[in-house]
Amino acid sequence: MAQLTFWFEFASTYSYLSAMRIEAMAARAGVEIAWKPFLLGPIFKAQGWDTSPFNLYPVKGKYMVRDIGRIAQERGLSFRLPEPFPQNGLPAARLALVALEEGWGAAFIKGVYRAEFADGRNIASPETLASELAAAGADAAHAFDRAQTPEIKAKLRANTEGAQAAGIFGAPSFTTGSGELFWGDDRLEQALAWSGR
Length: 197
Description:
Elements: E1 2-8, H1 13-19, H2 22-29, E2 31-37, H3 41-46, H4 53-56, H5 58-74, H6 90-102, H7 105-117, H8 126-135, H9 140-147, H10 150-165, E3 173-176, E4 181-183, H11 188-195
Parallel strand pairs: 1-2
Antiparallel strand pairs: 1-3, 3-4
């Protein structure tokens, strides 16, 4: 089966849109999805940024909020920009790696995105994360413990370094088995079609 790697960052608004639709779209296209959490912070830092470009360029940020709102409405999703923005996605990303290894990854990842961008909750909060772990059917204490292991921390660092090596500069991004890179929720259809070639 063809495979597409989905590079996502929990602080990314457009990654929320992709996470909520990628499974169904990939199933229809006959493409297997490899979920890959990573951190944009180091990538932005390498470009000389200390925050999201949506904060650095307020006009762009205002447009993004309206754009996400329109798209979410069309797709039957709720959208609310959380405070602060961007959120600290590090704890959630480590937990997502545990989740993906243990078989409840998609449910947890989508739950975190809903908590953040539909409900406006703080995804760095242990209470928010514990709630989403429970909703995904996970043992929260076990998941929190595993997320702090050197193995998981190293895996997230490796994912971020892998994203940089692949030329990724934003999220969501998608890479095909042949190394083709697509950026943005609006390129998901094209990425899936390319993967299926």
